[in-house]
Amino acid sequence: MKKCTKCQIEKSLDDFKKDKTRKDGFRVRCQSCRNKECRDYRKKNIDKLKETDLKRRYGISIKQKHAMLLAQNGCCAICKISIVEYLEQQVYKKCFSIDHDHKTGQIRGLLCDGCNKGIGFLKESKEILQNVNDYLNHYSSIPSEQTNIIPLFKKKG
Predict the structure, then answer these.
(1) Which residues form the domain of 36?
(2) By CB count within 10 A, which of 14, 108, 117, 148 is most buried?
(3) Residues 15 and 74 in one domain
(4) What is the pLDDT of residues 25-70, one digit of tens each?
(5) Alpha-carbon gap, residue 55 to 49, rounded angstroms
(6) How many independent structural domains does the chain possess?
(7) Which residues pair with residue 40 across a beta bridge?
(8) What is the 3-state secondary structure (H, E, C) of 87-150?
């Protein structure tokens, strides 16, 4: 048993993370108190954490990300949806993603979630993207009566 220095409650050692630097081998605060401290810190320092994350992951600042958005006229670089319209549609209010080449790390632009995931699902392959384009063009040029596709919707009338 060990007493947490934050909540002053005596708890099982299972409630404390290990810490080799401490005499008893455990942290001084229980995991519940530590979790609350971390949540509070994240709420209080959200902008600082976003800035740090951008710098660490992409080497850019929030100002540079905003400049990219302005250069794209406030729209997704692919589908051209505006950031305002996009955020109105989002449940979690997630901002545009920073699209980058996974091989070189080079930033390409800001994309909405759908376009960013689309590139990922297509494995960043121009060949696969061309195949998708050919596929869609093929089926859009054939009247539905002439295809062997089972219609998903019945025509009215």
Answers:
(1) 1-44
(2) 108
(3) no
(4) 999 999 999 999 999 999 999 999 999 999 999 999 999 999 999 9
(5) 10
(6) 2
(7) none
(8) HHHCCCCCCCEEEECCCCCCEEEEECHHHHHHHHHCCCCHHHHHHHHHHHHHHHCCCHHHCCCC
Residues contacting 32, CB < 8 A, separation 6+: 7, 15
3-state SS class at 26: strand
CB 120 within 8 A of CB 110: no
What distance in Å separates the CA atoms of residue 107 and residue 100, rounded to the nearest whole number? 4
| CATH label of the domain that carries residue 86 | 3.40.1800.10
Q: Is 30 exposed, middle or buried (0-12, 13-18, 19+ CB in 10 A)?
A: buried
How does pLDDT run across 86-132, given as a tens digit for each residue? Answer: 988 876 678 899 999 989 999 999 999 999 999 999 999 999 999 99
State pTM to two decimals: 0.70
For residue 66, give the H/E element and its range. Answer: helix 62-71
